[in-house]
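Any chance you could type out a protein's amino acid sequence plus the matching backbone structure tokens because I've never seen that pairing?

——
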Amino acid sequence: MIVAARTGLGPSLLASLPSFLAYNFSFTPPYYTFEVADDGAVATLVFFLLMAAIAGNLAARMRREMAKRWTSLHRISNLYESAGAWRLPTGPGRYSKHWQTTWHTRWAGRLPC
């Protein structure tokens, strides 16, 4: 799972093979050999590989979705920061001061008196 979450599906499937062999070597009779004597053990080992493939696929998909969400969050935060320049000021008397400043910067000296 850690390999799949960090790298993707291919490396996770590659990492599941040594895990599969280690499980076969250590936990299935005859112990400390790669030989499988029981049909139930074969089913267990096949089930182990299948679950490793499914978990690796899910973790890889989760990683891709997280990357998409991170990109989206970064884009939204950039938009929010750039929109800050267009917001009106806040506080008491905010609109009158804003319009007064806008009036003086746009029209001062342009109107005939």
Remarks:
- The mean pLDDT is 77.
- The helical segments are 2-6, 9-27, 39-83, 94-107.
- Residues 25 and 32 are 5 Å apart (CA to CA).
- Residues 2-84 form one domain.
